[in-house]
Design brief:
Strand order of the largest sheet of chain B: 6-5-4-3-2-1-13-12-11-10-9-8-7
Strand content of chain B: over 45%
Shape of chain B: globular
Largest sheet of chain A: 9 strands, mixed
Number of domains of chain B: 1
Distance between the termini of chain B: 80 Å
Distance between the termini of chain A: 27 Å
CATH class of chain B: Mainly Beta
Oligomer: heterodimer
CATH superfamily of chain B: Lipoprotein localisation LolA/LolB/LppX
Number of strands of chain A: 11
Radius of gyration of chain B: 21 Å
Order of helices and strands of chain B: HHEEEEEEHHEEEEEEE
Strand content of chain A: 15-25%
Number of strands of chain B: 13
Structural class of chain B: alpha+beta
Radius of gyration of chain A: 31 Å
CATH architecture of chain B: Clam
Chain lengths: 401, 246
């Protein structure tokens, strides 16, 4: 306790030098928490949006379906297994048929994926109810990005072309009945949504689908777990279950890759702050030799003196945390509640929406504080080790180190 | 008596006309025969009318029967050296910039060739019409000042790319002078209109035609034949993947 009081008194005595170090360290502190909070926020937001609009509780894929290989789409369709059909009838699953096609907005050819989905489904947040408009021969739903890229607006007529199951060309004029706003580009860019039954009919693929998205929470309770037991019916029919962990893994990898890039910046910032602490400690040990000699002469062991100096260094991180809380705390609370807009957020490559809400969790703040404290203590201890080699007589005379 | 004579005259005239008009299948057979040569070597140009400009692509093609063809692009400089090889229903493309040969398959076959109105699939089409379609003569018309049969083709099998076609066939030369291709829904998808014809080794071929994707805006793609040699020997190595990199 005496050591702690002494350390605080010494730091206060050092005046501006202490505060300059604490301010430099607090910048690193705040930058790390802000950056990590941003990434966590991005990750959470993208996962929530992707789950809501695309993955829900997971997807059954036709065995030939590979979303990254459009060449697989021609063969990736089969009748929906009865067990999934019954789930769909109960509103717990949404079969989706995907076929490659083209649209011709303003006479320009644009390759797209035509996706058939039940207008009444509630499994994903895509506003498919608009496709239930029976007054239109071929109602079409597109996302805002596709609308911008093609210049299409609600009410516009556009020719849609595809090949049926036998490979014959077919084309119809459809009408855009709704443009959906979604942050999930993978249900928007280059995609046109149609009523499932109609696409199945037009493509000669009655009752068929490419994938079946199941509702959230399925597979966790008794009946559903039996139904969705991947060793039972669906797999036997050539369908493979992809759980949300699998479906979100690409997204997580993308966030992880961005985390690595950001971490390099944090390390540089942190190193600069640690360099300041190290320099200060080194200077203290050199300039305060007489004081060290006096403390040892008064009965303190060398180890106690090392602890004192290490504590002085480590306390910079506590001061930095207090300072950071004072000037960045209100900002973090504001951003956590209201989010903020980054220009070109769509170009980040995953679903972020209009605003980004950073996630400054207690765990993040506490973890970062502990990490900074431990690293600062270590950096403070490195120069303080020299005290162990100091002779009290030399120290009192202002020699040594 | 006079009435009977007139009736007999009309009947015999009608029978004569009916005898003159070949069936759709016969017309198709003759069209296929006219277009077939054991081998063909042609130098041609595609004039592609794009939204803002026009570009011309020149190519030399070697064709053997219906299964083998090899095309080398000669002009413009950026496309020169690009080669395509078709063996039966497979297509490979070599680009000198990447020094790679890729197989064009699946949905890529539907993409346009060099930005033209022709898809790779259109270029690959080789099966005889008579094998693919039932034909019916639906009328007569004049194209390029020549009398034509209008023949309506309907796919025999469901796996034919274009469910129906309407072809204007020169009555004397059995050369298609215009063709409209339709989707299953009846929507017009592509048109071909012959602008001029020429005789090569005693046979008539279109030497200038315009292909148009009817769903796209624009003026379509002109196809101009500069030279055409029929039934000339072509070495086997031309139709090998090794020749793509030569």
């Amino acid at each position: 306790m005496i050591i702690l009081r002494l350390a605080i008194r010494n730091l206060r005595g050092a005046g501006l030098r202490t505060w300059l170090n604490a301010i430099a360290l607090s910048f690193a502190f705040v930058a790390i928490i802000f950056g990590q909070g941003m990434l966590r926020g991005m990750n959470k937001q993208a996962e929530d949006a992707s789950t809501a609009f695309e993955y829900a509780g997971g997807q059954y894929w036709h065995e030939d379906y590979d979303p990254y290989d459009p060449l697989t789409l021609e063969n990736a369709h089969a009748p929906v297994p009865p067990v999934l059909e019954s789930l769909a009838a109960a509103g717990k699953a949404a079969p989706i048929l995907v076929i490659p096609g083209s649209i011709y907005p303003q006479g320009r050819l644009k390759p797209v994926l035509l996706k058939g989905i039940d207008p009444a489904q509630k499994v994903v947040a895509i506003p498919t109810a608009a496709l239930g408009d029976t007054t239109e021969d071929l109602p079409l739903l597109i996302g805002s990005r596709t609308a911008t890229a093609t210049g299409l607006a609600v009410g516009d007529q556009v020719t849609v072309q595809w090949r049926d199951a036998d490979g014959a060309f077919d084309a119809r004029d459809g009408r855009v009945v709704q443009i959906m706003e979604t942050s999930v580009g993978t249900v928007d860019i280059g995609q046109v949504w149609l009523p499932l039954a109609q696409l199945q009919e037009l493509a000669g693929m009655r009752g068929e689908a490419t994938l079946v998205t199941v509702a959230r929470g399925l597979g966790r309770t008794g009946h559903d777990r039996i139904v969705l037991n991947s060793d039972r019916v669906p797999n036997g029919a050539g369908w493979q279950f992809r759980d949300p962990e699998f479906l979100l893994s690409d997204l997580r990898q993308m966030v992880a890759s961005k985390t690595i890039g950001q971490s390099i910046m944090f390390v540089v910032l942190f190193l600069l702050a640690m360099l300041a602490i190290f320099d200060t400690q080194l200077l203290s040990v050199f300039r305060r030799r007489r004081e060290i000699g006096m403390l040892i002469a008064l009965g303190m062991t060398r180890a106690q003196v090392i602890v004192l100096f290490t504590l002085e260094g480590a306390l910079h991180s506590i001061f930095a945390a207090i300072l950071g809380t004072l000037y960045a705390g209100p900002l973090f609370i504001y951003l956590n509640r209201n989010g903020f807009t980054i220009p070109g957020m769509d170009s980040f490559g995953f679903a972020l929406g209009d605003r980004l809400y950073p996630a400054f969790t207690a765990g993040l703040i506490f973890g970062t504080t502990v990490l900074v404290f431990v690293v600062t203590a270590f950096v403070a201890w490195l120069p303080a080790r020299r005290i162990a080699k100091l002779k009290p007589t030399d120290a009192l005379a202002g020699r040594g180190t | 008596m006079t009435r009977n004579c007139i009736l007999c005259l009309c009947l015999s005239l009608g029978l004569c006309l009916a005898a003159e008009a070949p069936s759709g299948a016969e017309i198709l057979k003759k069209v296929d025969e006219n277009g077939y040569a054991a081998t063909r070597v042609a130098v041609s140009e595609m004039v592609i009318h794009l939204a803002r400009n026009t570009r011309t692509v020149r190519a030399k093609s070697w064709v053997e029967g219906a299964d083998k063809s090899f095309t080398e692009f000669l002009y413009p400089a950026r496309d020169a050296g690009t080669k395509m090889l078709k063996l039966k229903d497979e297509l490979w493309m070599y680009t000198p910039e990447t020094d790679r040969t890729i197989k064009i398959s699946g949905h890529m076959l539907r993409q346009s060739v060099m930005g033209s109105d022709l898809s790779y699939e259109d270029m690959m089409e080789d099966r005889k019409l008579v094998d693919l379609y039932d034909a019916e003569v639906t009328g007569e018309d004049k194209m390029l000042g020549r009398p034509c049969w209008i023949v309506k083709l309907t796919a025999k099998a469901p796996d034919v790319s274009y469910y129906s076609r309407e072809v204007w066939v020169d009555k004397e030369r059995y050369l298609p002078l215009r063709e409209d291709r339709f989707a299953k829904s009846g929507k017009l998808l592509k048109t071909t209109e012959v602008k001029s014809v020429a005789q090569y080794q005693g046979r008539w071929f279109a030497d200038r035609a315009t292909f148009k994707d009817a769903l796209r805006s624009g003026e379509g793609t002109e196809f101009v034949v500069d030279s055409l040699r029929l039934n000339v020997p072509i070495p086997d190595y031309i139709f090998s993947k090794a020749s793509l990199r030569k």
